[in-house]
Every structure is written in C-alpha cells, then in structure tokens.
Please model this.
Amino acid sequence: MVSGFSIGYMNFTVFLFLFSGILILWIDVKNYAREGMHKEKLASRIMGWMSLSLAVLVYIGNWIYQKMY
Model:
C-alpha cells in the first residue's frame, strides 16, 4: 500500500505538462514568429521546453517513487 502521498494524479499531471508544452511549441511559437514578436517567441519557446522537461522529470520521479514504495 502506498503511504498516502500519491492520490493518483501523476499521470494526469504528466499528460498536462506534455500536452501544454507541445501546444506552446507548435502553435504559439509559430504565431509569434509570423507576427515578428521575437521576445514573446523566445519566452514561449522557453516555457514550452520547460513544460516538456517537467513532464519528463515528474514521470521519472513518480517511477522512482513507485519503485521505492
């Protein structure tokens, strides 16, 4: 039995990070580049990659947690 810290939302969290990161990189960056908004394009690119990185980190962290307990 798991100790109570995990209530089953980790898969949903990983999905949201992945989905939002992909959408930011796919849609927002393209739109900002087309409009010539370079600072916004850079900020969107950073946020998209951070979201994807967080998805990977949360997935790996949850996997390690599940293996330990």
Summary: The chain has a mean pLDDT of 91. The two ends are 8 Å apart (CA to CA). Residues 38-68 form the longest helix (31 residues). DSSP finds two helices and no strands in the chain.
